[in-house]
Fold:
Amino acid sequence: MTESVSKPVRPRAAVILAAGQGTRMKSPTPKVLHRLAGRTLLDHAIDAAEGLGCERIIVVVGAHSPQVGESARKRLGPDATVIQDPPLGTGHAVLAAKDALADFHGDVVVTYADCPLTTAPVIAPLFDLITNGAHVAVLGFEAQNPTGYGRLILAPGHVLLRIVEEKEADLATKQVKHCNSGVLAADRAVLFDLLANVRNDNAKGEYYLTDVVGLAHERHLSTRAAFAPEASVQGVNAQAELAAAEAVWQQNRRKALMVDGVTMPAPDTVHLAWDTQIAGGAVVEPFVVFGPGVSVASGAVIKAFSHLEGAVVGEGALIGPYARLRPGAEIGAEAHIGNFVEVKKVKVGAGAKANHLSYLGDGSVGEKANIGAGTIFCNYDGFEKFETHVGKGAFIGSNSALVAPVRVGDGAMTGSGSVITKDVEDGALALSRADQTSKAGWATKFRAIKQAQKDKKKDKKA
Ligand code: UD1
Ligand code: MG
Structure:
């Protein structure tokens, strides 16, 4: 979910760095297009920028993965990306956004596209520092193992003297545990002015964004740090780190839902999506998976081993165990969707029941209708999809095949095992199966003959 913070005092813009190669992911999918809670890392970073109230968002992309730029432009518009080619360091990356922000007057926050846990509330303290007079504000954290990070050289009062990168650090500096998260904010003009003076005469031969801090301090500008928990600023560089970030995200979100009154007896087994909405008073049993686009109303119970995606569940509805709700499933209040029932693009009316082994795809089920076990909405002819509509209070006999397009009227019934290809009037019974015939004594005679044959074979062997 996009978390917002209070309205900006001055206009804000974000520069999101995404030009890295992400080679450690070892995947044909660019790193920042991997998903956490069903949403790309890039989108999480954009959510944070939007949550901060940034009116301009520029994503810096590399020449190597055009999909990243496409994804950013699709969400933010055609002017939202700039290319950094070749990548010559984080300072150089921010400079790539200079022209795009030339007409922007306000504060700029620099973030990374691979830090999905760095949400708007995590970054917000930087803007508080700026509001209180800081010219450059940096988000730091205390690292359990600082190796690899830039170290914050602090004076009392969170005054930041400079940032020293790992490769430039002497032994004493390497002992420093205060590290740079990578998130930095400054007035746009100040930032680009400082960046113009950053040089690349360092161990990596790169233009370090972090050098702006020392330069600002030398100019007697106010440079400050705010601190965030380490888990909230962790970047994703490899698949295991993506899974670790996912675990942190899931745990945070489950906790928030429980605070809101959602009952989850085994929260660790429930998998949520970035936008899952569950109202207080709903119950989510163990091993339930939510894909994107689900909302669950109060009093609903999602029973164990159900999978929901793009579905709306009404008040007091019972889902599962082992139910599958696919996009467009709209389950009315007090309706029941039971085990091994799949629902796609069907509006199920209040109090309707489909309790066992059914496929309901494309159409509607009226209020209080009963869908018998094994009912199939035959919605697809190999080329096109068609709709099935079942009226209010209708009763669909078990193992009915409703061949779309077809409508079963209000209060109508279908006989078990029927293949319904024509509309059924309100209140009618539709049957489409061979009449039952019965042959008196046939089974008894059959068994007698078979038993005699078996006995004869046994006698021969003996
Ligand atoms: C950077 C910081 C370091 C901080 C650490 C936190 C600098 C010089 N160092 O180090 O202080 O502790 O992050 O993780 O800023 N990127 C580009 N273009 C480039 C280089 C990088 O877009 O030319 C992007 C990457 O995609 C990545 C981010 O910037 O999202 C950080 O780059 P990375 O190479 O990981 O920086 P670090 O050396 O880890
Ligand atoms: Mg890094």
